[in-house]
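fyi for ur records
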Amino acid sequence: MLDTLAFIILIIGGINWGSIGVFQFDIVAWLFQGQADIISRIIYTLVGLSAVWCISLLFRDNEIVNKK
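which gave:
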């Protein structure tokens, strides 16, 4: 469950960075009135922590289990 949540947050962060790179538009800052706003900083921190968590996915030995 934590892996999925971290991955979703990371995707949201990636979309935001893509919009910054292509359009020079920060969606998070726009939604929450600037980069320095506490909610924006919390979101940026969650994206960073999610990225660090997802690094561990590369080194885990996970097997795919088929549920019927």
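The first helix runs from residue 2 to 23. thats all i got for now
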